[in-house]
Structures are given as C-alpha cells and as structure tokens.
Amino acid sequence: MRPLRLSALVLLLFASGVRADVALPEFERVELDNGVVLLISEKHDVPLVGLEAVIRGGAIQDPAEMNGLANLLAGVLEKGAGERDAAAFAEAVDAVGGRLSASAGLESVRISADFMAHDAELLIELLTDMLRRPALDAAEFEKLRDRSINLIKAAKGSNPGDLLPAYGNAFLFPGHPYGNPVGGSEASLARISHEDLLAFYENHVGADRLIIAVVGDFNAEAMKRRLSAAFGEWRSAANDESLVPVAQKQEGRRVLLVDKPGATQTYFWLGNIGVAVDYPQRAELNLANTVFGGRFTSMLNSELRVKAGLTYGARSVLTRPATPGSVVISTFTETSTTTEAIDMALDLLEKLRDAGIDEEMIDSARNYVMGQFPPRLETAAQLAAQFATLEFYGLDQTFVDNYVAALGAATTEGIAATITDVYPSPDNLVFILIGDAGKIRDDISQYGPLTELSIQETRFRP
Amino acid sequence: MSIFSELRRRNVLKIALLYAVASLLIVWIVDHAVSGEFAPIWAKEFVLLLLAIGFLVALIFAWVYEITPEGLKKGVDVDQTQSIVYKTGQKLNAAVAVLAVLGLAAIVGERLLPEFELVRLEPVEEIPLRPVYDSSESVGVPREITAYTMANGLRIVVWPDHDIPNIVMYNFVRAGGRNEYPGITGLSHFFEHMMFNGASELDPGEFDRIMEAAGGANNAYTSNDLTVYQDWFPRSALKTIFELEADRLQNLAIDPDVVESERSVVYSERRLRIDNDNDGRLYEQMLANAFVAHPYQFPVIGWPSDIENWTQEDLESYFKTYYAPNNCTMIFTGAVSPEEVFLLAEQYFAPIPRQLPPPPVRTVEPEQAGERRLLIEADTETPLLHVAFHAGSAADPEARHMELLLNILVGGDSSRLHRLLVEEEQLALGVGGMQMEGFDPGLVYFYLTLPPGADVAAVEARLLEELERAAVEGVTGAELEKARKIILADYWRSLSTINGKAAALGNYEVFTGSYENLFSLPENVSAVTVVDLRAVASRVFRRANMTVGVLQAAGEET
What does the pLDDT look like over B253-276, one tens digit per residue? Predict the structure, then answer.
C-alpha cells in the first residue's frame, strides 16, 4: 500500500489549526523518443486503475467559425476504434464495468478512464485504439454533431445557467481563443464537416502532444512497457501548437443581456481577465477567493444567500489556463431582485478590494483550504488527473508538495496586494445576464453600454 | 577416515566453492539484466531456484564420480593408486581463482567500463499487467468497522481508514417527504435549511463559520425518505464537529425572522430546480400523478402554498419528533477510531433525550387502476418524455433485480435503450433511468429528451415495445454478466473514498437494517439469474402500472 505520504505528525492536533502536509506519491516519468510522456504510479488499496490521457490543444485550436470541433473529435474518439465499431467499443467498456470518456477543454482533449485492475490490459488496448486507430466514422460524426446541436437547445430550456460561461467567455474574450465556446454553438457546429474532423485529427493529435498518467493496482514496470510498446512508434501531429496571446483586461464596462422571455429568474456573470496557472501568489489568491466566493460562508454567499435570501448560491470562480483566464462572480436571483443582487455583488467586490481580509478570516480560510485539500488527491483517478495536469503545464511536484507551506506563509499584506492585482474594480467589468429582457432591460441599462441577444439565436457571441 | 577428509579428497569441497563463486557471478549478471529491463522480474527467483537445485546435484555428483584419464568413473570403480583427484583439485582451485577475479573485475569495472548494450529481444511482454494486491478478492465485513447504539437510541457506525488525515460524518435523519401531509409539504427540506440557521448560542451562519474556520465543509440533502447531513473535515476538527452537531440537535433555534428569510431562499431553490428547469417541472407532476395515496406524491421541496404558510408550531413539533436521537443514524469514516467517537458521543449526545418514535407511515399506495397520462405545455424546442412504473422498496430483493435490469436497459452507451433510441434510430437525444429506493415501494423511472419536432407518441411506442420485450423475452446471460460487472466496479469505486464509504454504509444501515449487507453485494449480485430479471420486468412493465408525462411546446401534436 502506498497512500498519500502523510507525515504522522499531521495527526497531532495543533491548537492553532489544521496542518495537513500533503505530498504527491512517488511516480515515474518516462519520455519516449517521439515525445509521449508517461507518468506512472502504483496504488494498491482498491482494485482499480485510473488513467488520464491529455492531448495538448483543445478548443483553442478550433478553426475560426468552427467552435466545438475539438469537442466533437473527443466524442467521435469514443465511437469506434481499431477492430471495434461504435457499438462494439461501448460494449467492450461496459462489459467490464469500466468508465471511459473523452471530452475537450479549452486547452486539451482529455480521455479519463477508471477500470477494475483486472482489466488494465483492455484499458490500454482501448486507449491505444482510440488515439492511434480511431474509426472517425462519418455517420457517427454526423449523429454526434446533430445531437450536440439539439442538446444546446435543450439546455436553453432546462439549465440556462449552464450556458453562462459560453456567453460570458465569448463576450469577455472577443477575438481571442479563450472566447471559443468549448462545446460549440448551434451555428458553429452546423458548419463543421467530416473532412474538418479528419483534418483536425491529423493536425492536432499525435505523439508530441500526448501525456498519459496512470495510477492504480498494477506493476509499474509492466505498465511502462505496455504503454511504451503501444505509443513508442506513433507519428507526431502535423501542425505545431499555436501560441495563445495574452488577453487584454477589460477597461470600463460592457453589458450583454440574453433574452429568455418568461424566465422567472435572472442568471448573471460578472467578470474580467484574471491570471494564468503559473501566477506566483497562488496560495494568497486561493485564500482570497475562498473568503470572497469560494465557500459557503464566503462574502458573496453570506450576504446574498444567508443574510438577504436573494439566491440559492453565489460564488466567485478563477479560471487559470496557460495565459491569463477569467475572474468571475456568478449567481442567480428572482427577476424582480436582479439589480438588488447585482448591486450587492458589486459592493462586495469593492469592499474586498478596499478593505482586504483580516487576520482572523485568513486563518479561517487557511484551515479550510488545508482541511479540504487531502480528499482531492484520494483516488487513483484523481491522482492520475493531477499528474497529467502538472506535466501539461510544465509544473513539478512542488506545486502540490509545497502548497501547504505556501498557505502557511501567506501574509495579510501579501493577500491584500494579490487582491488588488487580480480582482477587477467594479468599474471595469463585463456583465452577462440571462433573463426576461422585457422585465429587466430598463433597470440594467444603468450598468453600461447594453448589447442584446435572444436566447433563440444560434450563437453565443453577439 | 573422517567424512571431512574424504569430502576433501574427493574434491567435493572445492566443487562447492567453485559452484558458489560461479553462482554469485550468475546472480550478479541476472540481477543486472533484470534491472536493465532485459529479463522478466521473476527471472532472479527462477535462477536462484535452479542454482539451489544444481548445487545439490553437483555435490552428489562430485562425491560419487571422479575424473580419471579414461574419463568419468564412479569413485568406487577407480583404483585409488591411479587417482588423479589431486590434479583435478588443482584445476578446480585455478577455476575458482579465475572466476573470483572475473567477478571482482565485473563488480569493480561496472562503473569504469562503458555500458554495454545487450541486443534487446523484441517487445518484452513477460511481466503480466495484472493486479498486484487485488483487494477485489477480499470478502466479508471488514473487522475494523464497529457499531454502537447509545442509551438514547442514537445509532453510530465507525469505519476507520487512515489513508488521508480526514474524517467524514453522515447523519441520516429518518425524515423526508413521506413523513409529510398537506399543509406541511416541504417541511423536511425546510429543516435541512434551518439546521444551519442557529442554535442556543449560535447566530444564523455561525454553524458554518465555525466549521469552515476549523477546516470543515458541510452539505445536506433531503429525499422522499431521509434528510442527510454531511460533514467533511480534517481530523483536528473532530471535537468541533461534535460540539456543533450536538448543539443543533439539542438546541436548534427556530427564530421567526430567520424562518421568513429562509422561506425566500427555499423559493429561490424551487425556481432554480423546478420552475426554470423543464425536467424538474415534469418530474414534480409525474410523482403527483403516479401516487394517489402515498405521500411520495409530494414534492420534496414542498408546494408553494405550504412553503408560505407552515407555522411556528408545525416547525417545533416536527423538530422534536424527527430530530430525536432514536430517529438518527450517524456514520463516521476516515482517520478516527471507534473508541474516540464513542467517547465523544457519550460526552456530547448522551444528554439529548429519546422521544416517542415518529408515527408510522400507514398509507400503502393501492394497486394502480390503469394507465395515467399528463401533458405540460412549455416554451421548449426539445420535448421531454417521462415514463414511470410502480415497483418495490429498497429492502425488496426485487430492487436488486431491477437495478441489474436498469443497467442492461440504460447503463452506459452499450445499453439497450441508448443504442436503439439514441444511436441507431436517433429518436432521442438522451435516455436515462432510475428507481426510487426508499422505505416504501417507489417508482422505476425513465426520462428521455427528444430532438426538436420529434413524434413523441412514436417514441413512447418504441420505448414501451422495448420494455415489453424485456418482460417477454428477458435478457441474455451476457447482458446479465455485463450488468453485474458494472455494479461491482461501481461498488469498488464507492469504497475508494472515505466519503463513498460513509454514504454506502449509511444507506445500507438505514434502508436494509444493517451496514453488513453492503458487503454481501458481490455475492447477492452473482446469485441473480436471467429468470429473476424477466420476472421483475413482467411484474413492473405493465401499462396499467404506468404513468406517462410529456412536456412540449404548445400546439404540438401529442
């Protein structure tokens, strides 16, 4: 058994608070001649194998006007590979109770799998087939594309809040790849052909783009040989990865109102450009965000939900990709309290920047972040995803291993400086609202120049 | 002549020495070959075994045989005056010396000499890729789990697991939608909110503030059967958790002002989950129509008029009855011992008095008298189709059969309904299914999202045709085996975290009467036959037992 290396000392109770020295378990890193990186670690407490395969380049590589292409490719990778057609492939996974799914993010296409340890051999075979010998069948592609279009229509009826990031990123990052809706829009999906799919596979999938992390109950040496044999001879992607420019912060305000007639509540998203994954004051920033909108007793949730009863939940979210991403406040409220809730959120943002966070609250946040950290690296699948993510961003183990120490070292001044560095002034924000425009249009025009879009429109970008 | 001098004379000792030196050399080579990836990992053990056997053979051989100018002869046949054992001995000495020098040179030279590459044999596949530890073989109830019932009736189960320095606590309160009646629908769920809104010495919000400051996080959910409170915390917060949990069980404040503010939070949740969510709207109406007598007909969040109007008296009497220790089951998993939990429980929970047990839910839903249908007209492009049938309770053995059957019908992309309706005929964008597993008989429920312009009636007909096929023809052995594997893999996934362990233990303890039943799941699943599955399908999938709900745009044909 090789669980997380947790020093026995951490079990001592410190009067001052939580001490959980979390360190990643040992793992082996192997780089094959063709660039494939393997990250392998044994974990024997449960008879499972968790695997995370990451192909660099996700929605940011979608060609102009073809948003959703990387995500469609991910979906089609599951629809038949090697000797198996789509039905046989699904049957192979289900027959052993395995879980395997592929999806695109902004920066990568990821395959996540969780199989019983007895079926590790099959897992490697399926993964190899998916990446090296996918069927990329035209009929399967068309089915998936059409279904994806219809699922966006369904979300507009059942979960409009889920679409906030798509509208928000398109509006916050105009003309920048981080503005690409990962799942595409109804209009962009309709433009994608089978040839586009084949080209994307040739151009953006290959050994030089691949990271495979695998953790579980197996012999590491055996796993290394299997993966080396499976991927050692693979070709590279035809294209180089394109570089993502640094997005410019929003100066002033812009407002997008997405009209959903009949909606009884308004969903809103207030944001600006934030920071990248390698932002040096990560501990300070995570403590600040925990206090502002990252937990139940955060400033946003306490005021909007607990005290005012305006919403069921309010939060702030930082997205930190390779170059600066977004910093966002999001919540929802009854149509009639739309401006009340927005004003309260803006006041809290102002207060955070002006007053910073006091010592007692920092201690509380520190305990919370430390106390909630170990369960995030508990399973084989979680560890595999963590190893892959570190490799993807060129970070080393100290990103995890030194985190607790960095949280301990964060100071009030350091946190205050980080807040003014990262959180935008309420004067510099984009506003996205989904709601009944007829009822809220007049009230929200005060926030800035208004752009309107019907939810029936087949695109996210106004 | 002593045996020792005879051993010496026959060169047995020199052979032994030579053998030992040669063996060391061989072991060294094998060892390096293995670490250099040129041989399978069992090679070393195998070579050691061969050498050990060879050692015995060589010694016996040296004793029995002797080298003579005429060749190899049995020692007893050799004329001892002509024996050349001495010369042979000298040769053996020389051989030992040469091997020893070689060995020394190899070990010393290892670092000095350039590394030499052995020709690599084509892909080495000797190491089997299979589980090393394979805990899936373990059976039975883990001995480290300990259960305890306090004098006031509070039941506690502890499963220590020290992988991470964290603890999970679940409190299963037997209060849910089934315990409500018109006028107080939604009250169980409302208490889920009120339990965070202050106790004797704590203002609203303090509970969460103290817990989060100690590093803990919490949540809760309410179902038709239960209200379940969950705390996830570092070991250092254990005592704080007991203080907080005991305080709110014993001294909950039901402040009228707070009640008013919380009503609006619950309304917000209702707008989110039901009014603005087409699936939520249809589900609420499905339950209201499928049950005519049993309280499973009430929405867990409550009817709007009840959320507005329940009284202070309703709240106080509900709390006293349902939050009594004898109506709760607590589960602790993680970095904690049963002894310390029981000690703290005695300290903090023992003063909370037992109450009369809650009134039993007497109403039994009568046999459905015929098919029921409902239609909601809404602003949507994508129609929804929900179909439900009355089935068993969680403790009913048929619930296990239905779980397997549901896996065959809707579990994963290879399931019957997904393949047919979503992939092959493209009648639906998605299809899912579940069964309500509660104290009383619930529903088996299918939910489909249809593409714009779908012929809803035709999709329904196709779905029912497939369900009838399962009832008449049953399923294949291969399908059953697949469903078993899915359930077993999910079982292991649930046991891979302390949170999953707490949830699984608690649900088995509460719904089946003992957490121990969790561990007979692998056995029970393998005992189910295709005959069982056909039986449950034909009992449940009947039109007279069915409720059909459709949500679609106004004016569309049904």
Answer: 888 888 988 888 888 788 878 887
- In chain B, which residue's Cα lies nearest the Cα of A6? B164
Give, for A308, the enclosing helix (H) or strand (E): none
Tell me where in chain A the CATH 3.30.830.10 domain(s) lie: 8-231, 253-454
Q: Within 13 A of A15's CA, how many CA atoms are on the CB side?
A: 0
| Cα torsion A273, A276, A280, A281: sign | positive
- What pLDDT sits at residue B89? 74
Fold of A8-231: Cytochrome Bc1 Complex; Chain A, domain 1 (3.30.830)
Q: Do A225 and B378 touch (CB under 8 A)?
A: no
Q: Which residues of B touch A299 (CB under 8 A)?
A: none
Looking at residue A338, the DSSP 8-state letter turns out to be H
- What class is the A253-454 domain? alpha beta
In a domain, B444, yes or no: yes
CA-wise closest residue to B406 among B493, B467, B357:
B467
Strand, helix or coil at B88?
Answer: helix
Residue B397 lies in a domain: yes
CB contact under 8 A, B487 and A124: no
Listed residue (B174, B184, B226) closest to B358, CA to CA: B174
Phi–psi pair at A302, nearest 5 degrees: -60, -45
Of all residues in chain A, the one with the smallest CA distance to B266 is: A312
Question: Using one digit for the tens of pLDDT, what is the confidence trace for B146-172?
Answer: 999 999 999 999 999 999 999 999 999
Q: Give the per-residue pLDDT at B41.
A: 52
Please say whether the dihedral angle defined by the alpha carbons of residues A157, A163, A167 and A168, taken in this order, is positive or negative.
positive
Across A36-53, average pLDDT: 96
Separation CA A397–CA B262 (nearest Å): 45
**The domain boundary residue, chosen from B55, B88, B112:** B112
How high is the ipTM of this complex? 0.89
- Whether the CB-CB separation of B230 and B169 falls below 8 Å is answered with yes
Which of the listed residues B57, B91, B112 is the one where a domain comes to its end? B112
Count of positions (residues) in chain A: 462
The range of the structural domain enclosing residue B228 comes to 148-348
pLDDT reading at B379 higher than 90: no
Q: What is the pTM of this model?
A: 0.83
* Weakest mean pLDDT among A148-162, B99-113, B245-259: B99-113
Same domain, yes or no, for B384 and B341? no
Statement to judge: residues B389 and B435 lie in one domain: yes
List CB contacts of B336: < 8 A, sequence separation 6 or more. B158, B160, B167, B235, B238
CB-nearest to B129 from A13, A95, A222 is A222
Which CATH number do you get for residue B322?
3.30.830.10
Contacting residues of B for A19, CB less than 8 Å apart: 236
* B449 and B307 in a common domain: no
* Residue B135 included in any domain: no
Distance CA A184, CA A169 (A): 12
Residue-wise over B190-200: b if at least 16 C-beta within 10 A, else e?
A: bbbbbbbbbbe
The whole-angstrom distance between A436's CA and the closest CA on chain B is 12
Residue A209's pLDDT band, with cuts at 50, 70 and 90, is: very high
Better pLDDT: B89 or A338: A338
Residues paired with residue A458 on neighbouring β-strands, in sequence order = none
Measured CA to CA in angstroms, residue B119 lies from A278, B33, B37, B38, B481 at distances of: 44, 12, 12, 9, 45
Quick one: average pLDDT of B388-416? 96
Residues of A in contact with B261 (CB under 8 A): 307-309
- Provide the mean pLDDT of chain B: 88
Residues of A in contact with B432 (CB under 8 A): none
Bridge partners of residue B390, in order along the sequence: B443
Distance CA A98, CA B486 (A): 7
- CA distances (Å), origin A235, targets A125, A230, A232: 18, 12, 9
